[in-house]
Amino acid sequence: MRFDIVSDTHGYLMPELLEELKGADYIVHAGDMCSESDLRRLERIAPVQMCLGNNDWSYEYGGTVKRMTRFYADRLRWEICHYRERLDLETCEIAICGHTHRPFVERDKRTNTLVMNPGSPTFPRGGSGPTMGRIITYKGTVLSAGIIKLKAKD
C-alpha cells in the first residue's frame, strides 16, 4: 500500500503536491492543515488520516480528528501527532509528526519504530525546499520510506 505523508500545508495545497498525491492508497496529514476545504479536496484523492496541529481547530474537521490519531492499516499500527515529543513509540510501528517543517525519516533506536516528519510543501525550513513523505508497505512490512522533494513550477 502507498501512504503519502504530508504536514503543515497551512491552507495551501500546491499543484505539485496534488499531482504527487495521485494514486495514493491513503493520505496521512500530521497537522496544520488549516482548511476544511483542503481536507475535502484531499479526501477526493484518497482516504485521509490526520491529527490536529497547533493552528487547527477540531470544529473545522469534526469530532473524529484529535490531537493524537491512531489507526491500523496494512497490518501496521500507526500514530500521528503534530509534536514528535508527544508520540508514544511503544504503541506503534509507524509514527508521523510535523510542526518543525523539517523533513526526516529514522528508526527509533529503542523501539525500532519508523518515525517520519514529511516537512512542509508550503513553508519549508532548513533549506530542504517543499517536501512530502511516502511509505510503501506490504502485509505488515515497510518496503520503503522516504522524503520526496517537490519542485515548484516557475
Descriptive account of the structure:
- The chain is mainly beta and 154 residues long.
- Helix content is 12%, strand content 34%.
- It has three helices and ten strands, in the order βαβαβαβββββββ.
- The chain has helices at residues 15-21, 36-43, 58-61; strands at residues 2-6, 26-29, 48-50, 68-73, 76-81, 94-96, 104-107, 114-117, 131-138, 141-149.
- Strands 3-2-1-9-10 form a five-stranded mixed beta sheet, with helices on one face.
- The longest helix has 8 residues, at 36-43.
- 38% of the residues are buried.
Task: Summarize the model shown.
This protein has 154 residues and is mainly beta. The chain has three helices and ten strands; from the N terminus they run βαβαβαβββββββ.
Give a count of the beta strands, DSSP E runs of length 2 or more: 10
What structural class do you assign from the helix and strand content? mainly beta
Low-pLDDT sequence parts:
none
Distance between the termini: 32 Å
> What gyration radius follows from the Cα positions, in whole Å?
14 Å
Strand content: 25-35%
Output the helix-strand order.
Answer: EHEHEHEEEEEEE
Helix share of residues? Answer: 10-25%
- Given the C-alpha coordinates, what overall shape results? globular
Give the averaged pLDDT, no decimals. Answer: 95
Q: How are strands sequenced across the largest beta sheet? A: 3-2-1-9-10
